[in-house]
Amino acid sequence: MGKRDPRVDAYIAKSCDFAKPILAHIRDTVHGACPDVEEAMKWSNPAFIYKGILCGMAAFKQHAVFGFWKNSLVFGDSTKSANPMEQFGRLTKISDLPPARTLSAYVRKAARLNEEGVKVARKPKAAPKPIRVPADLAAALKKNKKAVAAFGSFSPSHKREYIEWMTDAKSDETRARRLAQAVEWIAEGKSRNWKYERK
Predict the structure, then answer these.
(1) What is the pTM of this model?
(2) How distant, in Å, are the alpha carbons of 52, 53, 159, 179, 189 from that of 149?
(3) Residue that is last in its domain, among 115, 146, 177
(4) Other Cβ atoms closer than 10 A to 46
(5) Domain check: are 96 and 46 in the same one?
(6) Residue 151 to residues 85, 124, 133, 160, 191: CA-CA distances in angstroms?
(7) Calpha distance 78→97 (Å, rounded)
(8) What is the DSSP letter of 120?
(9) Does residue 32 sit in the same domain as residue 95?
(10) CB within 8 A of 151, min separation 6: which ones?
(11) Distance of CA 157 to the CA centre of its chain
């Protein structure tokens, strides 16, 4: 059997007057369409859980929002927004939502997706941008075998930290000073922000 969370009651009670009936309507519709749904607070907003996050709602000063966690699978390309919490736009009255029968069908579809363990396909990660080492840093590293080896073993983020530190220098003097310090630290196997790393 479903479970209502008193924190959601408190959230609705604290919401602006226009939002209270919208949130109550959404809540009742979700429970009616998925009797085993449980409520929780996620990211400080009410969420509905059924074999994973099903949907969520939130209220602001001038509008409320409601959306499904797997919006792209529930709606396909017909969703108004890629943001899961803005699928129905900015809600200012109950009639901004689809009819209860339609909304219930969406809830049942989202519940079925969770039951079946269907996952949203993630976009493939873009290939990382190549790291361009400034000529003066590359030349200084070549003169120090330990520094070359250490820099080559650094993660891309550690390499970028040093490169950004070098390229952000405002004057040639500052850049030269940073270059000398960078080679020394790199040869010791230290990251740019080694002083702040936990040991």
Answers:
(1) 0.61
(2) 46, 46, 12, 17, 9
(3) 115
(4) 25
(5) yes
(6) 43, 28, 11, 11, 9
(7) 15
(8) P
(9) yes
(10) 141, 159, 162, 186
(11) 20
Strand partners, 45: 42
Tokens (6 digits) for 119: 């996952």
List pLDDT tens digits, range 187-198: 999 988 888 776
Contacts of 181 (CB under 8 A, 6+ apart): none
Q: Are residues 184 and 104 in the same domain?
A: no
Query: Do the beta carbons of residue 47 and residue 56 sit within 8 Å?
Result: yes
Pair of tokens at residue 76:
């396909």
Task: Count up the domains in the chain and report the number.
Answer: 2
Element holding 153 (H helix, E strand): helix 145-153
Residue 144 to residue 132: CA distance in whole angstroms: 19
Write out pLDDT tens, residues 5-51.
999 999 999 999 999 999 999 999 999 999 999 999 999 999 999 99
Backbone φ and ψ for 183, nearest 5 degrees, come out as -65, -40
Instruction: Out of 59, 81, 115, pick the residue that ends a domain.
Output: 115
In a domain, 125, yes or no: no
Tokens encoding 176: 């030269």
What angle do the packed helices 100-115 and 19-33 form, to 10 degrees? 50
